[in-house]
């Protein structure tokens, strides 16, 4: 990792503990949820848990 001045900074260790924290932090990320929903074309009120309202099940069944 470099700063704007080009100096070498201390690198964070990218070991299994680093990725465990990264994935754990990502689970509670509203930004990640918004990006995923937008990418998959879900409506804005779909929600981060991916819970489908009962009324939408017929429409989804037809699409499958």
Descriptors for this entry?
single chain, 64 residues, mainly alpha, 3 helices
Describe this structure in words.
The structure is a single chain. The chain has helices spanning 16-27, 30-40, 57-63. With 64 residues, the chain is mostly helical. It has one domain. Residues 5-10 have low confidence and may be disordered.
The biggest sheet amounts to:
none
Outline the low-pLDDT stretches.
5-10
- Tally of separate helices: 3
Per DSSP E runs of 2 or more residues, the count of β-strands stands at: 0
The share of residues in extended strands comes to under 5%
Following the backbone from N to C, one meets helices and strands in this order, namely HHH
Structural class: mainly alpha
Q: What assembly state would you assign to the polypeptide chains in this entry?
A: single chain
Average pLDDT rating:
76
Task: Measure the end-to-end span.
Answer: 46 Å
Quick one: overall form? elongated
Q: How many structural domains in the coordinates?
A: 1
* Helix proportion: 40-55%
Q: From the alpha-carbon coordinates, what is the Rg to the nearest angstrom? A: 19 Å
Quick structural gist:
The chain is mostly helical and 64 residues long.
Write the layout of secondary structure elements.
Layout: H1 16-27, H2 30-40, H3 57-63
